[in-house]
Design goal:
The complex is a heterodimer of chains A (415) and B (311). Chain A is of the alpha/beta class. Chain A is built from 13 helices and 20 strands. Chain A has one domain (50-362): Alpha-Beta Barrel (TIM Barrel). Chain A has helices spanning 70-80, 97-108, 132-137, 153-163, 177-180, 189-194, 201-218, 230-241, 252-256, 278-290, 305-308, 325-337, 339-353, and strands spanning 4-13, 16-17, 21-26, 29-31, 40-50, 52-57, 82-87, 113-119, 142-144, 169-172, 185-186, 198-199, 222-224, 246-251, 295-297, 369-373, 378-379, 398-399, 402-408, 411-414. Chain B has 12 helices and 9 strands. The longest helix of chain B has 19 residues, at 286-304. Chain B is globular. The chains are: A alpha/beta (415), B alpha/beta (311).
Chain lengths: 415, 311
C-alpha cells in the first residue's frame, strides 16, 4: 500500500465531477488527512473517475507467456485505469478446478479484482462437458467457449442445460462458423472493393438467434460479447421483452472504427469480430443510448509483433486495448451520453456483469480511481503499451484525452 | 517528358487519367519496338528487377520477364516454391534480404490483398503489383485497355462487359477502376454467388444477371476464367450449367454487335467460359492482349523507374 495526496483533482461523486479539490488516499481509501510527508501529485484539474472494469481479458499465461504475461496485463490495467476484469483464457481453457485455482492464485498477487470464465467444454473442443459445478463452486462466474463458436446445437443444449444447475451466465461471441467460412472482414462495400472474403451480418444474427432460443428454452442467462451490428441488438431487445435473461456488450474499438479503416490495409485492424459499416457503428451507439447495450468491453488480446507485421490477411487477429481505451473513448462517449452513463458503461456495469463489486469514489471508502486529463490529446506510441506487443489499431493515432495516473488497490501508477 | 504521379503500381483504383494515359501512350511506343528486328532498348540498363512470385504464374511472370529483358534490366526470378519462404521466413525478411542485394524494382504476386502496399511500406524498392489476392491485377487491366484502344481507337464512350466470377477476380476489379477512369462504361455479369452483393462503391458500373442483355450493346466482352475450386466450394453446381448460362458462345454472340471484341485474361477453359470457335474466331483479340501485355509492362517499369532514357 502506498499513500498519496492528489491535488487539484475533480472526483466523480454522485454522478458528476466536483470542483478541483485535494484527495488524501491512505491505505487504499479516501481520507480527510494524510500522514506528514506523503507523496503529492498535482493533477492539474484532471478528472478522477472510478477505476474501470475490463470485460474480455486474455493475458495468454501460462501456455503462451512468450506472447504476454499476467504481469504485463496487470501493468496494462494499472496504466489504463482498470481495477479489475473478466478473464477468459484462449491459450489454456479453464476447464477444471486446478486450472481455475492456479489462475486465481496468479491474480491474487496482482492487487486487482479478477473474475474468471470457465470453459463449458474440455479444451473448448465442444465434445466433452467440463465439470461446471465444481468450477462454479471454485468461483467461476460463468462459462464460455473461448470465442470458438464450434458447438453443435445438441452439445450447446446439453452444456447450457447442465450448466444451468450453477446459475452461471453463458458468454458467447456470436458468429456462425459456417457462414464465417474464411471471412476476415465485414462483408460490405470495402471488402468487395478490396476483394477480401467477408463475414456477413447474418453470421452474427443467426448465431445469436440460436443461442437466444436455447436460453429461452432452458431458462439460462446468456451474455453476448462484442455485438457488432444493429440487427443483433434488435434480437436481444426482443428477447428481453419475452423474458429471456440476456445481457450484451460492445467492443470499445467497434465504437471508434468501422470498415472504412480497411482501406489502409493495416493488419492491426484484423480483429476477431470484424469492424462493420458506419451504419452498424451508429447502431451500436444508439444501443448504448437506449440501454440495450449493457457495457463496453475491452477484449484485450495481445498478438506478437511478427504475427502482426505481415500483410492483413496473414495477420493473427486481435487487439490490445487497456492502455488506450479510456483516452480514446471518454470524450465521444461522455459528450454523447453524459459522464454518468459513460462511467456506468465502462466501470459499474461491466463489474456487475462479472459479479464484482463496482468501484466508487466516496470518502472513507476503499477508492480505486483513474485520473484523466480529458482535454490533453496524446499520440499512441509503442512505449505506451506494456510487454512486447503493440497490436492496437490506434497505433500512431491521436487520442483526444490522456490517462494521467491511477490509484488502485492502494498502489499509485503515474502514466 | 511527363512523369507518373504514382510511385508504385498497387492497383488502378485512384490512379489518375493522366497516369493511365501516359502508360498507354508509352505502351504504344513499346508496342512498335516489339515489332522491330531488334526488340530491345537500353532504358533500364543497370537496373535490377526481382520477380517475386508467391503464387504460381506462367504467363504473367514470363510477360514481365520479357518486358524487363526488352528494357535491358537485370532480372531475378524468385518463387515461393524454391525459396526461404518454405523454411518459414516472413515476407518482410524475404524482401529485406532481397533488397540488401541492391535491387531497384520488385514485381510481386501474392495471394494476400495489399501485399504490394505492405512491401512498399517496408522497403525502398519500387513495387509493381502482378496480382494480389482478389484485389487488383493492374497490368492485366492496362493491357486490356491498350487492346481496346488499339482496336477501337478509344475507350471513351465504349461499352465493356465483363462476364464471370467477378467476386474473386482481381482482373475485373482493376478493369472496373481503369476503364471507368478512361471513360468507358463497364457492365458486370455473373452468377449471383460470384458477384459482390454490396455495390455502393461500385456504382460506376452496371450490374446485369442476364448475359444476353449484358452483351447486347457491348463493344468488348471480357470473359473471366472460371476456377474449378468454385464448384468444390458449392458456389456453382457444374461447369455444364455455367457454360449454358454464362458461357460466351456463338449463339450468345448473335445477341451482340457484329464487331464485338472477345477478350480473356487467360488461361482459357475452352468450352466453359469461352467456346473454342469464339476463342479462335475473327472477333477474338486474345493473342493481341498477350503481345500488349509485354508492351504495357515495359511502359509501367520504364515510367516507374523514372523514364530515365527515351524508348
Amino acid at each position: 500500500m502506498r499513500n498519496m495526496v492528489l491535488n487539484n483533482v475533480r472526483p466523480f461523486i454522485d454522478g458528476k465531477f466536483g470542483e478541483p479539490t485535494k484527495m488524501c488516499l491512505v491505505d487504499g481509501a479516501w481520507t480527510d488527512t494524510a500522514p506528514a510527508g506523503t507523496d503529492e501529485f498535482d493533477a492539474k484539474g484532471a478528472l478522477a473517475l472510478p477505476a474501470l472494469f475490463g470485460l474480455g481479458l486474455d493475458f495468454k499465461e501460462p501456455l503462451r507467456d512468450d506472447i504476454y504475461t499476467f504481469r504485463d496485463g496487470v501493468s496494462a490495467m494499472r496504466r489504463g485505469g482498470f481495477f479489475g476484469g473478466l478473464y477468459e483464457s484462449s491459450a489454456n481453457p479453464i476447464d477444471d478446478s486446478q486450472k481455475l485455482t492456479a489462475m486465481q492464485q496468479l491474480a491474487s498477487k496482482s492487487g486487482l479484482e479478477f473474475a474468471f470464465l470457465g470453459a463449458f467444454s474440455m479444451g473448448y473442443q465442444c465434445k466433452d462437458l467440463s465439470e461446471m459445478v465444481e468450477l462454479a463452486q471454485g468461483g467461476a462466474v460463468g462459462f464460455g467457449d473461448g470465442n470458438q463458436n464450434s458447438a453443435r446445437t445438441r452439445f450447446l443444449r446439453l452444456a447450457m442445460e447442465y450448466g444451468s444447475m450453477t446459475g452461471g451466465r453463458f458468454f458467447f461471441m456470436p458468429l456462425d462458423d459456417s457462414l464465417r467460412h474464411h471471412g476476415l472482414v465485414h462483408e460490405g462495400s470495402y471488402a468487395d472493393t478490396l476483394g477480401m472474403k467477408g463475414i456477413p451480418r447474418i453470421a452474427e444474427t443467426i448465431a445469436a438467434f440460436r443461442i437466444l432460443e436455447m436460453a429461452r428454452f432452458l431458462k439460462v442467462p446468456v451474455h453476448f460479447k462484442q455485438v457488432s451490428c444493429g440487427e443483433t441488438l434488435r434480437l436481444i431487445d426482443l428477447a428481453r421483452t419475452q423474458g429471456v435473461d440476456v445481457t450484451c456488450d460492445v467492443d470499445v474499438y467497434h465504437l471508434l472504427l468501422d470498415d472504412s479503416c480497411l482501406f489502409d490495409l493495416d493488419s492491426h485492424c484484423n480483429v476477431q469480430m470484424p469492424f462493420r459499416s458506419a451504419e452498424d457503428r451508429e447502431a451500436l451507439w444508439k444501443g448504448l443510448e437506449s440501454g440495450v447495450v449493457d457495457a463496453i468491453s475491452m477484449n484485450h488480446d495481445p498478438v506478437l509483433r511478427q504475427d502482426k507485421e505481415v500483410n492483413f490477411e496473414d495477420a493473427v487477429p486481435g487487439a490490445v486495448s487497456l492502455e488506450v481505451a479510456l483516452g480514446a473513448i471518454w470524450k465521444p462517449l461522455s459528450e454523447r451520453l453524459g459522464a454518468a452513463r459513460a462511467v456506468e458503461l465502462l466501470s459499474t456495469a461491466p463489474a456487475r456483469l462479472a459479479g464484482v463489486r463496482p468501484s466508487a469514489i466516496a470518502k472513507g471508502e476503499r477508492t480505486d480511481l483513474v485520473l484523466l486529463d480529458q482535454d490533453r490529446a496524446c499520440k499512441v506510441v509503442p512505449t505506451m503499451l506494456t510487454g512486447k506487443v503493440r497490436n492496437t489499431p490506434l497505433l500512431g493515432k491521436e487520442l483526444p484525452s490522456s490517462v494521467v495516473g491511477s490509484y488502485i488497490g492502494g498502489e499509485w501508477t503515474e502514466v | 517528358m511527363s512523369a507518373l504521379e504514382i510511385k508504385h503500381l498497387f492497383g488502378l483504383r485512384g490512379v489518375s487519367k493522366h497516369d493511365i494515359r501516359l502508360i498507354l501512350d508509352n505502351a504504344k511506343q513499346f508496342r512498335e519496338v516489339l515489332e522491330r528486328p531488334v526488340k530491345k532498348v537500353p532504358s533500364l540498363r543497370g537496373m535490377t528487377v526481382v520477380n517475386l512470385f508467391f503464387e504460381n504464374s506462367t504467363r504473367t511472370r514470363t510477360s514481365f520477364e520479357l518486358a524487363e529483358k526488352r528494357l535491358s534490366a537485370d532480372t531475378v526470378n524468385f518463387t515461393s516454391s524454391n525459396s526461404s519462404v518454405k523454411k518459414g521466413e516472413t515476407l518482410v525478411d524475404t524482401l529485406r534480404n532481397i533488397e540488401a542485394m541492391k535491387i531497384d524494382i520488385v514485381v510481386v504476386r501474392h495471394k494476400g490483398t495489399g501485399v504490394p502496399k505492405f512491401l512498399a511500406d517496408n522497403s525502398n524498392a519500387i513495387i509493381v503489383n502482378a496480382g494480389d489476392g482478389a484485389h487488383e491485377h493492374p497490368t492485366q487491366a492496362l493491357l486490356d485497355m491498350l487492346t481496346v484502344e488499339e482496336k477501337l481507337g478509344t475507350l471513351e464512350g465504349k461499352n465493356v462487359t465483363i462476364v464471370g466470377d467477378i467476386r474473386h477476380s482481381r482482373v475485373a476489379r482493376s478493369n472496373l477502376w481503369g476503364m471507368t477512369t478512361m471513360g468507358a462504361h463497364v457492365t458486370l455479369c455473373g452468377p449471383s454467388t460470384l458477384v459482390p452483393r454490396n455495390t455502393e462503391l461500385m456504382d460506376k458500373v452496371t450490374w446485369e444477371t442476364d448475359v444476353k442483355k449484358a452483351v447486347k450493346n457491348a463493344d468488348a466482352i471480357i470473359a473471366l476464367r472460371l476456377q474449378k475450386e468454385r464448384m468444390d466450394d458449392a458456389l456453382l453446381p457444374s461447369m455444364r450449367e455455367y457454360r449454358n448460362t454464362f458461357g460466351i458462345t456463338h449463339e450468345l454472340l448473335e445477341c451482340a454487335k457484329d464487331k464485338v471484341l472477345i477478350m480473356h485474361p487467360g488461361p482459357i477453359n475452352r468450352g466453359v467460359e469461352l467456346d473454342s470457335e469464339i476463342a479462335d474466331g475473327e472477333n477474338s483479340v486474345i493473342l493481341n492482349q498477350v503481345t500488349n501485355g509485354v508492351a504495357v509492362r515495359m511502359a509501367v517499369l520504364f515510367l516507374l523507374a523514372g523514364g530515365r532514357a527515351n524508348a
